[in-house]
């Protein structure tokens, strides 16, 4: 059975960034199970594995533009130190939840320069070309309930 819309795909994957470092992997864990064609994976990955079948293994390159997009300079901004709680730990890499235009977003501290905190609200993988190694474990028809919910209910279709 081939990967196409309204089918549940179970797969192992390893994600590497531009420099070859592993960013995420299902190795040693349960494989990932998702409903294809419902925007559950980044679009550039779903498109490229369409038509594959169980047992197939492939390397998939997804340019940043089809993954998490380019780095948006407007999502980098300066915030006065005084706007944070006094006990907030502000170090490069610290993460905070903030209200964005489209709902809550996670922002990161880039650096702290004097009384100015430099914030980056871009996705951590913005601007990064992604390299996936994918091994398709199983492809099955989704249940009506899964299609209605827009997500997989696990390898067997029952968990939630
Ligand atoms: Zn559900």
TrEMBL record:
Catalytic activity entry: [protein]-peptidylproline (omega=180) = [protein]-peptidylproline (omega=0)
GO molecular function, one term: peptidyl-prolyl cis-trans isomerase activity
Domain PPIase FKBP-type: 6-90
Pfam families to which the protein is assigned, alphabetical: FKBP_C
Region of interest: Disordered: 81-102
GO cellular component: cytoplasm
Main location: cytoplasm
UniProt keyword Chaperone present: yes
Gene3D superfamilies: 3.10.50.40
Superkingdom, natural source: Bacteria
Listed EC numbers: 5.2.1.8
Keywords: Chaperone, Cytoplasm, Isomerase, Rotamase
GO BP, sorted A to Z: protein refolding
Subcellular location: Cytoplasm
Keyword Chaperone: yes
Role noted for this protein: Also involved in hydrogenase metallocenter assembly, probably by participating in the nickel insertion step. This function in hydrogenase biosynthesis requires chaperone activity and the presence of the metal-binding domain, but not PPIase activity.
Family of this protein: Belongs to the FKBP-type PPIase family.
Protein name, entry field: Peptidyl-prolyl cis-trans isomerase
């Amino acid at each position: 059975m081939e990967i196409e819309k309204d089918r549940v795909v179970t797969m192992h994957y390893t994600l590497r960034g531009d420099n070859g470092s592993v960013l995420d992997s299902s190795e040693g864990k349960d494989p990932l199970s998702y409903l294809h064609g419902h925007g559950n994976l980044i679009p550039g990955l779903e498109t490229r594995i369409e038509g594959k079948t169980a047992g197939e293994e492939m390397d998939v390159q997804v340019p940043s533009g089809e993954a998490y997009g380019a780095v948006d300079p407007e999502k980098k901004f300066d915030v006065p130190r005084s706007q944070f709680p006094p006990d907030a730990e502000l170090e490069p890499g610290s993460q905070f939840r903030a209200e964005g235009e489209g709902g809550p977003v996670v922002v990161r501290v880039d650096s702290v320069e004097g009384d100015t905190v430099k914030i980056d609200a871009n996705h951590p993988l913005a601007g990064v070309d992604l390299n996936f190694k994918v091994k398709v474990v199983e492809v099955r028809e989704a249940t009506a309930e899964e299609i209605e919910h827009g997500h997989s209910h696990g390898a067997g279709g029952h968990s939630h």
